Amino acid sequence: VRTASFAYVRPRTLPDALAALGRVGAVALAGGQALVQSMKLQAATPTQLVDLNDLPGLDEIRDTGSGLEIGALVRVHQLIDSPVVALRAPALAASAPLLGDVQVRNRATVAGNVCFADPRANLSSALISLRAELVVDSSGGPTTLPVDAAFAGFRRSALTMGDMVTAIRIPAAAAPVRGTYRELARQQNGVPIVNVAVTLVGDPVTEAGVGVGGVATTPLRLVEVEEVLSGSPLASIDTAAVAALVTRGDAEPYEDMHAPAAYRLRVAAVLLRRALEDLKGDANV
Ligand SMILES: Cc1cc2nc3c(=O)[nH]c(=O)nc-3n(C[C@H](O)[C@H](O)[C@H](O)COP(=O)(O)OP(=O)(O)OC[C@H]3O[C@@H](n4cnc5c(N)ncnc54)[C@H](O)[C@@H]3O)c2cc1C
């Protein structure tokens, strides 16, 4: 399988990268773990690859005081090795070891996982549960975008031409954070069929975040479920009743050769119930 022909640039500064990304047909290359396969299948046919890997200062996870900032070149394995991610973003910490194999995790970036906009992406559901936002830069200057608003359709992000995600921000919580991630996959470390991530702040819960992947053409935030969880003491959460609220709302259903749409919703409800049961039993916070 061969890619279509393309030009390649490797800028060393952010302004140069943004200028290159502003050209028609230009696409960012980060870890290449999704993009290169798409190019081989000619599902993506960029005329210019803008390799981000020489850009300085984007490969760190920083605690800014108001939250965590994950640079655009932070690799998935860095999430697994980070004590601050385990403490502040446990759903993200739980989702990372299940993404691909060790070679994939060593190359793949967190931002690339979100920007690829696969509805089943591990990290997208976790970041939705954490109310994360993307820092998006372009020739027009930086702006922010909540992660749950970053998706326009199956493998179609809401970014526009010339946009580059420079970081992902996870806001600090006012109380201890519990979080977990559950998935159904055909094989260990394969792309999940369905996944669910839950983040609960405090007990009673002052803030709840629930992300689900694989039930619609985009990853979803389950707002109704979050509202029911908010205010509840952990011990009194009726996990089965909450799980029964799982719906994809108005979102377009997603199905493929692995599972029909109705089955995906049922699995999501089961995964949510199990995730909540995990968190009720989590005495470590
Ligand atoms: C064997 C294998 C197993 C895999 N298993 C899983 C799995 O279990 N779970 C899962 O979720 N995924 C899985 N993937 C998919 C892939 O590894 C992830 O989606 C990965 O995180 C993509 O990140 P990347 O840095 O490699 O992105 P790239 O492939 O470089 O880019 C992906 C897309 O994001 C865009 N992009 C990247 N960075 C930016 C940025 N900073 N700003 C704007 N746009 C940007 C690119 O232009 C491209 O469109 C697997 C892939 C392989 C090859």
Q: In whole angstroms, how far apart are the ends?
A: 50 Å
Major beta sheet, strand line-up? 4-5-10-6-7
Oligomer: single chain
Number of helices: 11
> Which cofactor or ligand species appear?
flavin-adenine dinucleotide
Amount of beta strand: 15-25%
Number of strands: 14
User: What is the SS-derived class?
Assistant: alpha+beta
Query: Percent helix among the residues?
Result: 25-40%
**Sheet having the most strands:** 5 strands, antiparallel
Radius of gyration: 18 Å
Q: How would the global form be characterised?
A: globular
Q: Please, could you describe this protein's structure?
A:
The protein has 285 residues and is an alpha+beta fold. It is built from eleven helices and 14 strands. The protein has helices at 14-21, 35-40, 76-80, 83-88, 90-95, 102-107, 110-115, 122-129, 223-229, 239-243, 261-280, and strands at 7-9, 26-29, 48-51, 61-63, 67-71, 133-137, 143-146, 151-153, 156-157, 164-171, 177-185, 192-201, 207-213, 220-221. The strands form four sheets. It has a five-stranded antiparallel β-sheet. Strands 11-12-13-14 form a four-stranded antiparallel β-sheet, sandwiched between helices. It has a three-stranded parallel β-sheet with strand order 1-3-2, with helices on one face. A hairpin with a 6-residue loop joins strand 11 (177-185) and strand 12. The longest helix has 20 residues, at 261-280. The chain is globular.
Write the layout of secondary structure elements.
Elements (H helix, E strand, L loop, with lengths): L6 E3 L4 H8 L4 E4 L5 H6 L7 E4 L9 E3 L3 E5 L4 H5 L2 H6 L1 H6 L6 H6 L2 H6 L6 H8 L3 E5 L5 E4 L4 E3 L2 E2 L6 E8 L5 E9 L6 E10 L5 E7 L6 E2 L1 H7 L9 H5 L17 H20 L5
This protein binds flavin-adenine dinucleotide (FAD).
Flavin-adenine dinucleotide binds next to strand 2, helix 2, helix 6, helix 7 and strand 10.
